[in-house]
Design brief:
Length: 294
Amino acid sequence: MMSPVKIWFLASRPKTLPAAIAPVIIGTAMAYDQHQFHLVSALVCLFCAILIQITANLANDYFDGKRGTDTPSRLGPQRVTQAGLVSHRQMKSAIALTIGLTLIGGLYLVIRGGWPILIIGLLSILFSLLYTAGPFPLAYLGLGDVFVFIFFGLVAVSGTFYVQTLSLNPIVVMMGILPGLLSVAILTVNNLRDIDEDRLHNKKTLAVRFGRTFAQIEYGFTLLVAAIVPFIYGRAHPEHQFMMGLCALQGVLISRFLIKTVFTYKDPRQLNPMLGRTGALLFLYSVTFSISLM
């Protein structure tokens, strides 16, 4: 029998957490480069970002299970609600807990950053639920990719930078493209693996709407464009140009292997490891980018 700790660890979907951690690392590194690093704000941002990601994952588990989208025949990792490991009531309580903890942490960020942070925080929580909840869930309309790109890319990097420096500039927003695209890549792998089951349950992801080849091209596009972003940053900041070039080269070399796998897989189950590998690439980008600045 699975222990409660293991059940909730599984429900949190740890392979997706780099999507929450990476933009905070990137935003913090840019604040450090501007000599305005603020440790407490950075740690609270990280705390809230992880909780918002977990909230989205728990809500996805709950609402997909309730809609019947998750079935015993699913190809991806086990969903705890569908499997009966967690009751609907327990899952709703867990979602309320993660939202409550996010609001507590977010209160400090609002005090420091003011109303822009309040709006960002509330919208992030709201859309983490609306991703699979409500009469028009984003994931079922093919809008999940847009949500992920905006909130796990542009908003997360900009918000992390702003709450530390109390300022913002176009280069910071541009750097949000990197984690935003790679977070979309994680989602694309997930949707590509589940394309047949999603089609059966009328979950109209972009993969379902436009087909398998489109999703494969989308994955390759997100990885290759993300690799260009550090190079562009280096062009704007000549003092970092060499290291940013290496960062971009590293991304291209690793992306080549990942893209080849996505284009040549035979069994959708072969895509399960790609979730973790794409997340690892995102985390690696954030670390090497930060080291390049420091």
